[in-house]
């Protein structure tokens, strides 16, 4: 049986960054504890950065609980200050429910617990860049890490006909 308790001091973090706007590290919790219907991780965002682009989920719901630091959350067309103790709900939807956590500090990290439902397949929309992403997770043959299918598309005015080229 997988351990069902994990202290956040024992997390192993996966760092990532992109350009000058995105820098964070994520400590995976849900998969480590054997969670199947909820995903949860500890996200630590560097000063002045965001962890992810502005996006919405068409299927899954997310919740963020700020543990340390301060920043702001973009939700739709609005920006709201956030600080330690704040809980943020991000229900599924279109551009009006798009969200992004931003660390507005010049010197301190923003640390939050991120929790989400794990329904698959998922469709994400990125309003700032006009992209859509499709993500599907499948159980792997060996039962370890799930297999992931990812497809990223740019929004277009006209899509090809289903039968084109067949």
Observed structural traits:
166 residues, mainly beta, Jelly Rolls, globular
Task: Give the topology, please.
Layout (H helix, E strand, L loop, with lengths): L12 E6 L3 E7 L1 H4 L4 E8 L10 E2 L4 E7 L1 E6 L2 E6 L3 E4 L8 E5 L6 E8 L4 E5 L4 E8 L8 E8 L12
Antiparallel strand pairs: 1-2, 2-3, 3-10, 4-11, 5-8, 5-10, 6-7, 6-9, 11-12, 12-13
In short:
The protein has 166 residues and is an all-beta fold.
What does this entry look like structurally?
With 166 residues, the protein is mainly β. The protein has a domain at 8-118: Jelly Rolls, CATH 2.60.120. Helices cover 2% and strands 48% of the residues. A six-stranded antiparallel sheet has the order 1-2-3-10-5-8. It has a four-stranded antiparallel sheet with strand order 4-11-12-13, with no helix packed on it. It has a three-stranded antiparallel sheet with strand order 7-6-9, with no helix packed on it. Strand 6 (70-75) and strand 7 form a beta hairpin. The longest helix has 4 residues, at 30-33.
CATH fold group of the domain at 8-118: Jelly Rolls
Beta content comes to: over 45%
Rounded to the nearest angstrom, the radius of gyration is 17 Å
How far apart the termini lie comes to 49 Å
| CATH architectural grouping of the domain at 8-118 | Sandwich
* Proportion of helical residues: under 10%
Main pleated sheet: 6 strands, antiparallel
Number of strands: 13
State the fourth-level CATH superfamily of the domain at 8-118: Jelly Rolls
Structural class: mainly beta
Compute the average pLDDT. 92
Strand order of the largest sheet: 1-2-3-10-5-8
Order of SSEs: EEHEEEEEEEEEEE
Q: How many individual helices?
A: 1
The low-confidence parts are none
Indicate the overall shape.
globular
């Amino acid at each position: 049986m997988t351990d069902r308790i994990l202290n956040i001091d024992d997390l192993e973090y996966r760092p990532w960054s992109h350009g000058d706007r995105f820098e964070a590290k994520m400590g995976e919790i849900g998969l480590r504890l054997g969670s199947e219907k909820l995903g949860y991780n500890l996200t630590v965002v560097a000063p002045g950065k965001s962890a992810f682009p502005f996006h919405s989920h068409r299927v899954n719901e997310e919740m963020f609980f700020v543990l340390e630091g301060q920043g702001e959350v973009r939700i739709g067309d609005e920006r709201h200050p956030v600080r330690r103790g704040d809980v943020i709900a991000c229900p599924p939807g279109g551009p009006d429910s798009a969200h992004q956590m931003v660390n507005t500090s010049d010197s301190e990290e923003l640390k939050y617990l991120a929790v989400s439902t794990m329904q698959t397949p998922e469709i994400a929309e990125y309003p700032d860049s006009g992209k859509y992403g499709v993500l599907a997770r499948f159980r792997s043959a060996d039962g370890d890490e799930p297999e992931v299918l990812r497809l990223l598309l740019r929004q277009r005015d006209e899509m090809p006909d289903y039968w084109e080229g067949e």
